[in-house]
Amino acid sequence: MDTKKAEIVTWLFFLLFSYATGQTSICPAPESILPCICTNRHEDIQIWCTHSDLPQVIKGVQKVGDLIRKPIDELIVENNYLPSLPGKIFQNVKIMRLMLRHNGLERVSAAWLESQEMNLVEIFIVENDLRSLPAESLMKLQNLQALTIQSQNLKRIPAFSGLQKLRYINIQSESLNAVNENTFENLPNLEKLFIQGSINLRILRENAFYNLPKLRRLEITNCGINLIHMRALSLLPSLSEISFSNNKITDATMVGRAMRDLPVLSHLNLNHNLIDKLSEGGFVDQPMLEKLFLSHNNINVIHHGAFHRVPKLRVVDLNYNKISQIHPESFLQQSGSGVEELTLIGNQIMHISEFRSLLDALPRLKFLDLSDNLLQEIPRGALRGHPSLERLHLNKNNIKFIQTDAFVAMPALRELHLSNNSLNDMNEGPYWNLPALKGLDLSYNYFTRMQPKLLYHLPSLRRINLSHNQLSIIDPITFMELPLLEYVNVSGNSLVSIHPATFRNLANLYELDASVNRLIEFVPGLPRGLEKLYLHQNQITSLPTPPSPDLDLPSLRTLDISSNGIQKIPHGSLKTLHNLRRFYMKRNGLRQVEMTTFSDLNRLEILDLSYNQIMAIHPKSFSKLNQLKQVNLHGNTIENFDFMAIQDNAALSTLDFSKNKLKSISPNLVNRALDVETLNISSNNLNELPATLNMMSRTKSFRC
User: Fold this and answer.
1) pLDDT of 700 higher than 70
2) 490-504 tens-digit pLDDT
3) CB-CB contact of 453 with 477 (8 Å)
4) Rounded to whole angstroms, how far apart are CA atoms 360 and 279?
5) Which of 329, 456, 601, 701 is the most exposed place for a label (fewest CB within 10 A)?
6) Does the pLDDT of residue 5 top 70, yes or no?
7) Residue 679 to residue 528: CA distance in whole angstroms
8) Are 300 and 321 in contact (CB under 8 A)?
9) Can you tell me the distance from the alpha carbon of 311 to that of 313, in angstroms, rounded to the nearest whole number?
10) For residue range 525-536, what is the model confidence (pLDDT) as tens digits?
11) Residue 567 near residue 543 (C-beta atoms within 8 A)
């Protein structure tokens, strides 16, 4: 019964769709082609035959052919009972794209596609029980461009020989166990070839992929490949991307040998295999190779000459292996290696000093990532003097000690990340002399006090992240020598107060985050150019009031003072915030909103006052907020609200009054004041709702 209902619903959907498109004249009457359904978009016709058996499907397809003489753009045969398909089943129609899906199909006749030789452009088959596909049924499809076969039981790939226009092949089968020599033969236009999920496919034999002049991309993934013949890939002059990820490959040298005759190979993906080392000559004579991915293997050592004569190699991904040692001459090039990105995340590297010689052999290196290793210290000179390195990531190690002048003579370094380590105040410093450094991340360490020496010799610094340390004190002159600083994050610390001189001279400061501390007062001495200020989850109980200059921030666009203890917004305290767009003040103790509370915020767009103790809102409190788009008053104790107060806020699109104590809403106000895109008035004390709520023209989401 459920299946029958589903079929009726689906039929009605397609019927309505046809009428909605205004193209009903091409399709015949629905009852005349059952169990098939016809839809069309402009001149393209789609036929969908479903939830039936073989005789009925044949009958429906024949009627389609009798009534529609135009070529069918797409024929979908889905969710039927069709254990087999006889010859010439589609002889009465002209099909361009054929999809067979979930029909219980086990076998097809060698002549099942006869009469479609000049019509078919694409075949898409998803049939888990299909065991084979006769090669002779495909060989005459002169216009076929794309073929996809997904089956759990397909053991053999049919020969695709001679399909002159075929450009795309995708085979997915758990049971596939071999790729024969002549399987992909005489396919002059094949560009992309994918074989996936064949865990029993272990060997790529000689000439498995041979003489495919336009093949650009080959992916054999999630299979069981452990042996590749050195001539498995032959006469493939256009092949530029290969992926053997998620296989059982243990020998990288075997892969390297098989790749040597590929003149334009630029991307090689060997992620998620079982490679345990990179031996000498592993990757040799690959003149165009640019990107090499070897992550998630078992590599523990990289030997001398592992990468030899690969002049265009730029990116090497060795993440999540077991590497503890890399030979300093593993990259051998006549004019020096051109590698620009080397990532070694999640390995077992203990001593960064051992990489000194390796870095010398990589003079063009721009990005080095040694995060999530076993580093404990950065000794003096270990990273000294690299001319091109721009980004260095040493996150998530156990670095406790950085020797004086550990980071020096690195003129190009602009990003240094030392997050999630064990750095503390015991280090003497200065640690660095980095004139070009713009970003420094010291978050998730154990600093308790910010001192000037920590930031000595960083004249170009723009961004510093000191979040989630144990800071209780920031020396007032800490940032004195950093005039270009734009972003400071000291959130998640133990700060109780911040000296007024701390940020005063930072004319370029754009964003400050001091959230999740123990601040008891608003941060004093902030530069007037500040645009974003985050102070949520502190212990601030009041806002500065005139004539105090502490909230004189005319450039401020975002202010978050949520989760504090502010019970009142004093008159005039927000009067200089002329550019404020977003104001977040949830989870305070705010009790009321007066007429002048927000009157100076004429550019405000988002106002969040949720989870306060607001009982009353003045009817004119929002009257001057012409650009207001979102108001959140969820979780307060408001009993009465004059919704006429927001009728002139034309830009308002979201209004949340849920979880309050509203008792009634006047029907006359609905279309004038509550016609917004998103309205939530749920969890109130409303006994009845105005019928006019269902007539709001703009509302897309309504909860009551």
Assistant:
1) no
2) 999 999 999 999 999
3) no
4) 21
5) 701
6) no
7) 37
8) yes
9) 6
10) 999 999 999 999
11) no
Instruction: Identify residue 223 by its one-letter amino acid code.
Output: C
- Residue 151 sits at the vertex; the CA angle it makes with 145 and 152, to the nearest 5 degrees, is 155
The pLDDT of residue 692 is 64
Bridge-based pairing of strands 407-408 and 377-378 is: unpaired
Q: Tell me the CA distances in angstroms from 478 to 418, 448, 514, 534, one per residue in order.
A: 19, 14, 16, 20
Tokens of 452: 């000037």
Look up tokens 């960083």; give the residue. Answer: 458
Q: How far is CA 251 from CA 91, 127, 226, 566, 599, in A?
A: 51, 35, 8, 65, 71
What confidence score (pLDDT) does residue 664 get?
82
Give Cβ neighbours of residue 380 (< 8 Å, ≥ 6 apart): 403, 404, 405, 406
* Rounded Cα distance, 123 and 138, in Å: 10
Spatial CB neighbours of 549, under 8 Å, sequence gap ≥ 6: none
Place of tokens 């990288």: 252
3-state helix, strand, coil in the chain (%, to 5): 10, 20, 65
Q: How many CB atoms lie within 10 A of CB 117?
A: 13
pLDDT attached to residue 668: 65
Pairing of strands 532-534, 511-513: parallel
Contact 493, 471 (CB under 8 A): yes
Buried b (16+ CB within 10 A) or exposed e, 134-166: bbebbbebebbbbbbbbbeebebbbbbeebeeb
Rounded-to-integer distance, Cα 105 and Cα 90, Å: 16
| CA 661/CA 585 separation, integer angstroms | 20
Give CA–CA dist 565/105, Å, rounded. 68
**Three-state SS at 192:** strand
End-to-end C-alpha distance for the chain, whole angstroms: 35
Cβ-contact 337, 330 below 8 angstroms: no
Give helix then strand counts, H and E, for the chain. Answer: 5, 49
Q: Which residue, chain included where needed, has tokens 């998630």?
A: 296
Tens-digit pLDDT profile for residues 239-275: 999 999 999 999 999 999 999 999 999 999 999 999 9
Q: What are the structural domains of the chain? A: 1-154 (3.80.10), 375-540 (3.80.10.10), 542-704 (3.80.10.10)
Cis peptide before 158 (omega within 30 of 0): no
Is the separation of the CB atoms in 658 and 682 below 8 Å?
A: yes
Q: Tell me what pLDDT residue 1 has.
A: 42
557 vs 456: which has the higher pLDDT? 557
